[in-house]
């Protein structure tokens, strides 16, 4: 019995120590790239965001079945001036791939060590790009949508309805939803929600994202994506980016108001358990 009491006492002391260490954070510290990432991913599918996610799917079903995808793709390929389409699409293809990497990197590298607001913007934008890119790659791998024809066009309507659902049937480079649209809208909505007081930044961010979205189905003579790929990517990217941006914004406001963080990032408790035939330990973890 004495040994049991000693063991339980040691376990309880360990639990208190672990819990205290989890709650003890420096008075001021910059947010990390993975701050609140689990709840942010989950919340991207909750509440109003569920409508944006469902809207991406619903819009795709509607645009495919009404033939709008095929008509818009035929318009981009046959009716738009080829040179103008390329001039419109090439910069978007390049910017859409580079900007999501450059913006978080520049924000982080140019921020002073104690400029937690800018470091937070870098972490928030970086997290939203990572989350959006990962989600998009998984969706492409599963949906297996056939991209627009790039040489012999054939039956555009039938091609627009081709989804080879499974895993990696069409890879992750092409497909549904548009990665350029989803990632860049996520970046734009993150910055817009992290800096809600900067109207000019919101206008510039969303304007840039809408340019990228329009270019993926109108640029390069319709060779990149279907219209619904861009629409779905934009809606889903907004859900991700606005969630991450608001999460980091709340931390930013809490930190600026009281000189510290917005509370413990995580809490770990160890609770001893006693049974008739033995003893055990329960671990409880809470993440914010």
Summarize the topology.
Blueprint: H1 2-23, H2 37-43, H3 48-65, H4 68-79, H5 82-110, H6 116-143, H7 156-160, H8 179-194, H9 199-218, H10 227-258, E1 266-275, E2 278-287
Antiparallel strand pairs: 1-2
Helix pairs in contact: 2-10, 3-10, 5-6, 5-8, 5-9, 6-8, 6-10, 8-9, 8-10, 9-10
Task: Explain what you see.
- The chain is built from ten helices and two strands, in the order ααααααααααββ.
- It is mainly alpha-helical and 288 residues long.
- It has a two-stranded antiparallel sheet with strand order 1-2.
Radius of gyration: 24 Å
* Number of helices, counting only DSSP H or I runs of 4 residues or more: 10
Q: Give the CA-based shape.
A: elongated
Cα-to-Cα separation, first versus last residue: 39 Å
The proportion of residues forming helix, as a percent range, comes to 55-70%
Structural features:
two-stranded antiparallel sheet, disordered N terminus, disordered C terminus, 288 residues, 2 strands, mainly alpha, 10 helices
Give a quick rundown of the structure.
It contains ten helices and two strands, in the order ααααααααααββ.
